[in-house]
Amino acid sequence: MTTANELIIGALRFINAYAPGETIDSDDSNDALTTLNDLLDTWSTDQASVFASSENLFTFVANQYIYTI
């Protein structure tokens, strides 16, 4: 399982803020963790976000064109 620190390191390297093997400053790491937590808080209150999926199986009836779900 990926840790928050691994996400932060990967994101900072993706934007070329740090090079592979370079040690990340604790201030930068703390700022990135705060930003990650803010992002997760935003997603948890955003109704458009999907945190789980559900599969529903429906039986279709021949010659019936309207269904209520």
Mean pLDDT: 85
The strand count comes to 0
Helicity level, as a percent range?
40-55%
The shape, in one word, is elongated
The tally of helices reads 2
Distance between the termini: 36 Å
Class from helix and strand fractions: mainly alpha
Question: Which residue ranges are poorly predicted, with pLDDT under 50 across at least 5 consecutive positions?
Answer: none
Which helices and strands, and how do they pair?
Blueprint: H1 4-14, H2 26-45
Walk me through what this model shows.
This protein is mostly helical. It has 2 helices and no strands. Helix 1 packs across helix 2. It is elongated. It starts with a helix and ends in a 24-residue tail after the last helix.
Key features of this structure:
69 residues; elongated; 2 helices; mainly alpha
Could you write a compact summary of the structure shown?
With 69 residues, the protein is mainly alpha-helical.
